[in-house]
Design a protein that fits this description.
Elements (H helix, E strand, L loop, with lengths): L4 H20 L8 H17 L23 E3 L9 E2 L2 H14 L7 E7 L2 E8 L2 E7 L5 E3 L2 H4 L15 E8 L2 H13 L8 H9 L4 H5 L4 E7 L9 H11 L8 E3 L2 H14 L7 E8 L2 H7 L9 E5 L4 E13 L4 E13 L2 E7 L3 H7 L6 E5 L7 E7 L28 E2 L7 H12 L11 H9 L14 H5 L6 H17 L2 H7 L7 H11 L2 H10 L2 H8 L7 H12 L1 H12 L20 E5 L6 H10 L3 E3 L8 E4 L5 H10 L2 E3 L1 H8 L4
Parallel strand pairs: 2-11, 18-19, 18-20, 20-21
Antiparallel strand pairs: 1-6, 3-9, 3-10, 4-5, 4-7, 7-8, 10-11, 12-13, 12-15, 13-14, 13-17, 15-16
């Protein structure tokens, strides 16, 4: 770092942006995650100390935007046309021949690109800064989703050169990340997403960018609007994009004859499954921009491009049985056990059926011949029955196969549930893994394999037993040496010392109580023992009434909390935690003499600092932060793009509306 702190900050922004590009665009990171996190933490610290330094292209600007009520419409001067489709070699040959004929017999060079099954997006940059992200819409009119696009991996907030440019591409989700999302939804008893494309499309239209940030999405750009301004041909224009720091496919290639073109198409049939994202075909374009102009467009399609669609990947096989799985939250899901069959080079022996309502809709039974499809999921799904088997239709189970508890179905959920949250062996494994995971107690070294070892050896029967583990006990297990055993025991002790009530509450795995909702509950009660005492002293209805007074807690969540803490298995585990003296308190951030004591704030709109940071400063000064404007609100802190709903509510209840500058004065006690 140099002598000018402001220049040091700007250099740090550039450094982190370059590391983002190397990671998300080049897939070639040059520093470790730990080193990156240290730099990012330093950046956030500087921006908290000097909010007037913050620049629009800072990596920290990817979070903190306020929700929007609707997306403004965007009319683009150059329409995003659809592509004509070809489904066999004859269609493709006809396209090739038309291009050659229209170019007076000249054979053009064709660019060949993998067609990612994603969600179309257009990005606009002015002087190298991202100014607009717009959906395709009807081609001419899209929607402004700029705040959400900033959450997508690979979307640069500032280019390496200060150019004005408009680019188009696909936002997508990898197959592995899609599968993880659906696994989590299945465990929570939520309806599964259908495929990565629809998930990405729905995610980018979320009204709260913070929710978008939770969905792992990427982008690949495939077209430069008015590309002839930057290069003579399409592939050269994509090379220019990479020079600017934008992601393009590394699998793009070209062909200058029919034989080369069809050979390339054939090669993709075998390697499409090797990519981390789902493909539904190839896009074939005339490379030269002058030749494109000569070929022109129809009202719907460019004459110089076509999409070659891959054939559907569906096969039939025999259904032998249904396996019953029980997840961490007790969700009971069926998985089909199949006669192994090859699907696009992968042997498939299991398929998702999602839930027991789906089993009934399909009418599944042993011996069925079923049609399966591998489209965007690691585990394929059953589409239907082609020939009924001789057995009786599968009936949903009535008891848990692991602990024999009677299964239940909660109102509004499609999944069957095992209610034995703490005593069910299948749930014990998942509960301990979750308890120790990074965003909960963060016990380093306590991964899935170690948890299985501990449970199978009888050393751990529930999360409370973790705090009884000794080095000598761990040394009796395979792959544990003295150092690794000491490290795990130390990690457990460290997690205990650093735990807060909200982290413990979230780690217990109460339905719908994650790290966000745990905080206001923890602030209300202070410790787990205080919350348990409130549960014991009151009826369920009184507890529900009390809990729903907390910001963000509705009746459904309140009943989940009450039911969980009254469960006899849960009580036994929590009693064991209490005997260990493990009852962490929630830090009190408000001060009795802070300048904002007794005042309630609602923070909205786009601010120069991350909204979460603004809220923390308010709480540290003794103020309270709420999510919606009411008669109890003292101030509405309104940033840019504040929605009309909150402003109208402020006027209705006589709430004072202030900006960031006025808030800073209040925080400093000068207002």
């Amino acid at each position: 770092m140099g002598g000018d702190p402001r220049q040091d900050y700007l250099a740090l922004v550039d450094t982190l942006s370059e590391h983002d590009r190397r990671y998300y665009v080049d897939a070639n990171p040059t520093i470790s995650d730990v080193e990156y996190d240290k730099l990012a933490k330093r950046l956030v610290q500087l921006e908290q100390e000097h909010p007037d330094w913050i620049v629009a292209w800072s990596p920290s600007r990817r979070v903190g935007h306020a929700p929007v009520s609707e997306f403004p419409k965007v009319t683009r001067p150059v329409a995003m046309l659809s592509l004509d489709n070809s489904y066999d070699e004859a269609d493709l040959k006809a396209f090739y021949d038309r291009c050659v004929k229209s170019l007076d017999g000249d054979v053009p060079v064709f660019a060949i690109e993998p067609k990612i099954d994603g969600f179309g997006i257009e990005l606009s940059y002015k002087a190298g800064l991202l100014t607009l992200g717009a959906t395709r819409g009807d081609g001419r009119i899209g929607e402004d989703v700029t705040a959400n696009v900033k959450m997508v991996k690979g979307v640069a907030l500032r280019l390496r050169e200060p150019v004005d440019i408009v680019v188009r591409g696909e936002i997508y989700m990898t197959k592995a990340e899609f599968e993880l999302i659906n696994k989590a939804r299945a465990e929570a008893g939520e309806e599964l997403f259908k495929n990565p494309r629809n998930t990405a499309a729905g995610s980018i239209k979320q009204q709260d960018p913070r929710e978008v940030a939770k969905r792992p999405m990427w982008t690949i750009l495939y077209e430069v609007v008015d590309g002839e301004r930057y290069a003579s041909g399409h592939l050269a224009s994509l090379t220019f994009l990479r020079k600017l720091g934008l992601p393009t496919s590394t699998h793009n290639t070209s062909a200058s004859s029919w034989d080369e073109l069809i050979a390339c198409v054939h090669s993709w049939q075998d390697r499409r499954d090797g990519l981390p994202y789902e493909l539904d075909g190839l896009v074939i374009k005339v490379d030269d921009f002058a030749q494109r102009t000569a070929l022109g467009t129809t009202a719907k399609f460019p004459r110089w491009a076509i999409a070659f669609k891959f054939p559907a990947r569906q096969v039939t096989t025999t259904l032998h049985d249904l396996e019953i799985n029980v997840g961490r939250t007790g969700t009971v899901t069926p998985v089909a056990l199949l006669e192994p069959v090859d699907v696009s080079g992968t042997t498939v022996a299991r398929a998702s059926v999602h839930n027991w309502d789906q089993v009934a809709r399909l009418g599944l039974r042993k011996g069925d011949r079923v049609l399966i499809q591998k489209a965007g999921e690691i585990i394929p799904e059953i589409l239907g029955v082609t020939e009924a088997g001789p057995g009786e239709p599968f009936a949903p189970p009535t008891e848990c196969p692991f602990c024999h508890s009677a299964l239940e179905r909660e109102e509004g959920r499609v999944a069957l549930l095992c209610p034995n949250r703490i005593g069910c062996p299948a749930q014990i494994l998942g509960a301990i893994e979750f308890f120790a995971s990074r965003h909960q107690l963060n016990i380093d070294g306590l991964g899935e394999k170690v948890v299985v070892q501990l449970v199978e050896a009888g050393l751990v029967k529930d999360v409370a037993d973790l705090f009884d583990l000794t080095v000598d006990q761990l040394l009796s297990l395979e792959r544990f040496g003295k150092i690794s055993a000491q490290n795990l025991v130390k990690a457990i002790a460290t997690a205990r010392e650093s735990a807060t009530f909200s982290r413990l509450l979230s780690a217990l795995g109460i339905s719908n109580v994650g790290t966000v909702l745990a905080k206001p509950i923890a602030r209300r009660y202070g410790t787990l023992s205080a919350l348990r005492a409130a549960i014991v002293a009151k009826s369920t209805e009184d507890v529900v009434t009390e809990l729903t007074e907390i910001e963000g807690i509705g009746e459904v969540v309140a009943r989940h909390i009450d039911r969980f803490l009254r469960d006899e298995h849960v009580i036994a585990v929590l009693d064991k935690l209490a005997t260990h003296g493990f009852d962490p308190a929630e830090p009190v951030v408000a001060t009795a003499d802070g300048p904002l004591v007794g005042k309630t704030f609602v923070v909205t709109g786009t601010l120069t600092a991350a909204r979460a940071d603004v809220q923390k400063r308010i709480e540290a000064a003794g103020g309270k932060v709420a999510g919606s404007v009411s008669k109890k609100t003292t101030y509405l802190v309104a940033g840019a793009d504040t929605g009309k709903t909150k402003l109208d509510a402020a006027q209705k209840f006589g709430v004072t509306v202030i900006d960031e500058t006025e808030l800073q004065k209040l925080l400093g006690g000068t207002a």
